[in-house]
Amino acid sequence: DIQMTQSPSTLSASVGDRVTITCRASQSISRWLAWYQQKPGTAPKLLLSKASTLESGVPSRFSGSGSGTEFTLTISSLQPDDFATYYCQQYNSYPFTFGPGTKVDIK
Amino acid sequence: EVQLVESGGNLVQPGESLRLSCAASGFTFSSYSMNWVRQAPGKGLEWVSYISSSRSSTIYYADSVKGRFTISRDDAKNSLYLQMNSLRAEDTAVYYCARNPTGIFGIPRYYFDYWGQGSLVTVSS
Closest-CA residue in chain B for A89? Predict the structure, then answer.
């Protein structure tokens, strides 16, 4: 199975900050990576697929990059609505595994 | 508008069974592969099971539920199911149904573009 890790596990930031979250895969997954945002008590929301393809309706301050085993999610200017937990997920091969999550909270 | 609505979650004792349902609307259900993903309280996301669209017959399970859980679908009722047997305390979670988008030629992409609101399953004596 492909193991996914994320760093940091928690990130404290202020509105307007540039925020970067890293996701690593235990083996190459090409660009078969998705990012989700989840707020407490709600379902995850898809932000990006194929490492860098922004989903319709997702603000352009979100961007993704990477390939192989290392990926990043960047929020260019953190907004109040962005305080949430972020998960990466590999879909290169079954079983489809998620990272443990990165919680972005208010500094 | 795509909607996925789960139901059937409940409090059960270890060893008991439960069946979750997911009612889909707003898209051609039969053309999409579907999944169950769960989240234990305060924990991360865990993919549980996958079922292909009815054009093919592919089913996958996470090792943690293989042999105990059964995924199925009824395209006539636009519904997805998860039959959970021999439940354990570690199965306690919110269970989400989630759709895979399709790519070129209708080939599924194995990430999740739409999610339901979740159904809570609690396994406790």
Answer: B111
Q: Which of A96, A97, A102 to mutate to probe the B interface, most B CBs <10 Å?
A: A96
Do the Cβ atoms of B47 and A87 come within 8 Å? no
Using a 10 angstrom Cβ sphere, with 0-12 exposed, 13-18 middle and 19 or more buried, the burial of residue A36 is: buried
Identify whether the C-beta of residue B81 lies closer than 8 Å to the C-beta of residue B73: yes
Give Rg (Cα) of chain B: 14
Is a pLDDT exceeding 80 seen at residue B92?
A: yes
More confident residue, A64 or B56: A64
pLDDT of residue A76: 97
Confidence check: pLDDT of B25 > 90: yes
Contacts of A26 (CB under 8 A, 6+ apart): A2, A3, A4, A5, A69
